[in-house]
């Protein structure tokens, strides 16, 4: 994933040029993702499928972790990143000389991290995963020999899962005192449970694009993909060790409903595909990403360029 949680590579053709020029190139049905207006240059019915494999890498250094009562936390500092697949499917077809329609199914955002059970940070995090599935019906209209417009809906399902260990020994020491807890066999770091949070959300965004194609050699594209606001809801469930069950009687821990929210960024992209001669094509893309957070508005501009034989 070139941009953290965001997956910008949705096809083999885009991957081959690191997404450079994809807002303008309109080489195949995957243009639904990069610029829906490009479907007007796909002159036949077409289906494109790709599967990307992500091999994440993480590093961690323990600078002195302690539990709730101040004891050093025992455990491993080894991380355990796991590869995962990102499939995509795009289909496009002309329904006349002017109108083209298409459908995309892909995962635009997501990431997963899982640590070993004995990881020293297990009380903060053991597992976290965000997965999204986008169902994208799209339409494109050829306005003239040189201009096309397009757009579509992003009907998106998102799933968020998170888990961490709970040191019921330390919780007991804080709630009932060392004497009582020692009698119950609840000692810090020796009576671990777990909290699992499982949330889901459906939401809708949209995307728009325009393509200037005065000749087969020159394509200039501009696209906008809106933010998608996900309002998650689900459950938070506790796995309590047998020795710690007496703590649940006072309501210290209890399963409950859970909510969270996440906004994917707005993205504006400008692209150029310029054929230089029969062998060389220049591809350029500039993406402007706007990230919204509470009391914070972030911007990121990325540029991609490629020159290649065709």
Give the tally of structural domains: 1
Spatial separation of the terminal alpha carbons: 26 Å
Low-confidence residue ranges: none
CATH classification, class level: Mainly Beta
Number of helices: 6
Series of secondary-structure elements, N-terminal to C-terminal:
HHHEEEEEEHHEEEHEEEE
The coarse silhouette is elongated
Helix content: 10-25%
**Main sheet properties:** 13 strands, antiparallel
Report the portion of residues in β strands: over 45%
Q: What structural category characterises the helix and strand content?
A: mainly beta
CATH architecture term: Beta Barrel
Let me know the average pLDDT. 86
* Gyration radius from CA atoms, angstroms: 25 Å
Number of strands: 13
CATH topology: Porin
